[in-house]
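Weekly sync, protein design subgroup
Attendees: M.S., D.O., the rotation student, P.L. (late)

Item 1: inverse folding check
M.S. brought a backbone from last month's batch and wanted to see whether the design step gives back something sensible before we order anything. D.O. pointed out we never logged the input encoding, so this time it goes straight into the notes. Structure tokens as presented (226 positions):
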């Protein structure tokens, strides 16, 4: 079963939002999902204390010593496994990256965020050296303005990354009220009340397009590994 983690040594890069958005979308489409919450702040563990009926299980007691066991258990129990990693480079983070089918590196549209994302790319490469193989990853913009309000710096960062051969998702997770509301209301994206959330349908469309691109990346990785 696919194992996807979100990694970036910068706190607040959007890892938890990325993971919960993907999990919510796949669960809404009938998938069975487990999230391993390795973020010390436990945002997804807190989210799971709410009333959401989404088919999303959460493992909360995660450590360097047991993360490998948890990943194996989750992959036996669920169709999809997502790992929300801590915002630092650590052995636990490396162990998760080495076991993942895909590492998503979220970043915002600024030069500072791009620099931090480069550190995450280096961590993936270092983990790959330890594993003795190339580890798949993609960079992913989040908290950006939806078109046509994309900024010049975002376009320049994307152009530079692609010019350097960095894999970059075309879909962004934009700055939308609904993505924050998932954590506030402790509901999945598809359980939120459209009467209370500005342009909820826009956020849903954004999440579905983003998830489809991530799934396409996973299918490509599977084909290349065959």
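Designed sequence read out in the meeting:
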């Amino acid at each position: 079963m696919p194992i996807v983690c979100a990694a970036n040594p910068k706190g607040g890069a959007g890892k938890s939002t990325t993971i919960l958005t993907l999990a919510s979308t796949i669960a809404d489409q009938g998938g069975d999902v487990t999230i391993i919450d390795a973020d010390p702040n436990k945002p997804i563990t807190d989210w799971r204390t709410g009333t959401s009926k989404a088919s999303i299980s959460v493992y909360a007691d995660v450590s360097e010593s047991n993360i490998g066991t948890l990943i194996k258990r989750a992959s036996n129990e669920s169709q999809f496994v997502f790992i929300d990693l801590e915002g630092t480079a650590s052995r636990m983070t490396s162990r998760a990256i080495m076991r993942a089918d895909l590492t998503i590196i979220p970043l915002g549209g600024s030069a500072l965020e791009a620099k931090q994302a480069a550190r995450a790319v280096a961590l993936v490469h270092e983990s790959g050296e330890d594993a003795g193989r190339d580890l798949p990853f993609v960079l992913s913009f989040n908290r950006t303005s939806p078109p046509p309000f994309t900024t010049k710096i975002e376009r320049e960062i994307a152009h530079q990354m692609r010019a350097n051969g960095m894999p970059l998702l075309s879909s962004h997770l934009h700055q939308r009220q609904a993505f924050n509301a998932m954590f506030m209301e402790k509901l999945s994206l598809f359980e939120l009340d459209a009467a209370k959330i500005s342009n909820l349908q826009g956020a849903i469309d954004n999440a579905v397009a983003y998830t489809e691109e991530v799934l396409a990346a996973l299918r490509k990785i599977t084909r290349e590994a065959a």
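Discussion: The longest strand covers residues 137-144. The chain has eight helices and seven strands.
Action: P.L. to compare against the previous round before Friday.
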